[in-house]
Design brief:
- By secondary structure, this protein is of the alpha/beta class.
- The chain has 9 helices and 7 strands.
- A 7-stranded parallel beta sheet has the order 3-2-1-4-5-7-6.
- Strand 1, helix 1 and strand 2 form a beta-alpha-beta unit.
- Helix 4 runs parallel beside helix 6.
Length: about 220
């Protein structure tokens, strides 16, 4: 599929019956790690597309150092570089801040679409801090990707224990989108080493040197 326009301009019926992975985050900036996990999700979960939900402002992250949404979205589109990876700022139009609310609105807007929430093990470990986090599992199948060193803690954490009876084996990952939630899978796939924090640090280094009068 070729997706040259924002998701919000498409009608729900266009996506009816398709399996769509949702990767949320600040994307400050988007990097090859996001693309890598998306490609793994497309293949392993047998998805038709992955939407990147570029957040206007993550409520758990400070505004300081956060690039404007337009810049982050443009960078995400450059990095995605794949017709089945679709960066979007749909949360801005929906007016949502919290993931549970975003998922509820998406299910309403695209009633015939099978969504899967994608996240790293670091987010599984901290998801009990998210507003209405149980509703995420109860509304949408979830795929959790290995992210050392968080994975061991995450798999023994509150969310994993709460929904331990709804975990499916990795061998069933290809059918996750068709399962009735709650349903989740942990995928021990190799991770890409890219880090948004490290990218921001490298980008800021020349400016710091200039401020000190260094070449």
């Amino acid at each position: 599929m070729n997706h040259p326009r924002p998701v919000t301009r498409w009608s729900g019926p266009l996506w009816a019956g398709l399996r769509i992975g949702l990767l949320g985050g600040s994307f400050n900036p988007a990097h090859e790690g996001h693309r890598h996990i998306s490609m793994v999700a497309l293949a392993t979960l047998r998805l038709d597309a992955v939407w990147w939900l570029v957040s206007p402002q993550n409520p758990l992250k400070p505004r300081a150092g956060m690039e404007a949404l337009a810049g982050r979205l443009a960078e995400a589109r450059r990095v995605a570089a794949h017709p089945r990876i679709v960066p979007t700022a749909i949360e801005r139009e929906l007016g949502t801040v919290y993931t549970a609310e975003t998922l509820d609105r998406l299910h309403r807007r695209f009633p015939g679409t099978r969504f899967v929430w994608l996240m790293g093990a670091d987010n599984l470990a901290q998801i009990p801090r998210w507003r209405d986090w149980r509703k995420i599992f109860e509304r949408t199948p979830v795929a959790v990707f290995n992210r050392p060193p968080y994975s061991l803690k995450a798999l023994g954490g509150k969310a994993a224990r709460r929904f331990r009876d709804r975990r499916v084996g990795a061998e069933r990952a290809g059918g996750l989108a068709a399962l009735d939630p709650p349903a989740w899978v942990y995928l021990d796939s190799p991770m890409h080493p890219a880090s948004a924090t490290e990218i921001r640090r490298r980008r800021a280094a020349p400016a710091r040197r200039a401020d000190r009068g260094l070449s």
